[in-house]
């Protein structure tokens, strides 16, 4: 089972690479503002998880430079579980007005990004 999942994961990564979405282009000063805003975001994710790939593709489409955190690493996994509430990826960590929110579900994350940055 592990090997099947591993192979599927590599296929997903290959297809994602070959069919990478086109990055949205903004004027540099506008992109700088967006880059500042995305510094308060972090995506907890696995490299080959299809739901994480979906979110990363949307980030690329929108040209959002969001820090990627590998949730397979023990310390990251522990933080996600303790503060987010469960071990599930993708999860977007949002820091705003001194508060931290952990947003689960790929659909909810892409909707949030589209509403906030489009
Ligand atoms: N409905 C969720 C599904 C997310 C999901 O199933 N993620 C898997 C990885 S692909 C997960 O976090 N599994 C828990 C684990 O690996 O421990 C979404 O769309 O984000």
UniProtKB/TrEMBL annotation:
Gene3D superfamilies with a match to the protein in the record: Glutaredoxin
Positions of the GST N-terminal domain: 43-117
Database matches in InterPro entries: Glutathione_S-Trfase_N, Thioredoxin-like_sf
Protein name as catalogued: Glutathione S-transferase domain-containing protein
């Amino acid at each position: 089972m592990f090997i099947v999942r591993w192979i599927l994961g590599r296929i997903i990564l290959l297809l994602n690479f070959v069919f990478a979405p086109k990055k949205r282009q903004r004027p540099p000063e506008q992109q700088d503002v967006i880059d500042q805003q995305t510094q308060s975001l972090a995506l907890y994710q696995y490299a080959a998880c299809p739901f994480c790939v979906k979110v990363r593709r949307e980030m690329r489409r929108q040209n959002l430079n969001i820090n990627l955190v590998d949730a397979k690493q023990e310390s990251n996994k522990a933080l996600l579980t303790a503060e987010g509430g469960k071990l599930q990826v993708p999860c977007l960590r949002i820091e705003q007005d001194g508060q931290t929110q952990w947003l689960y579900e790929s659909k909810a994350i892409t909707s949030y990004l589209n509403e906030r940055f489009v």
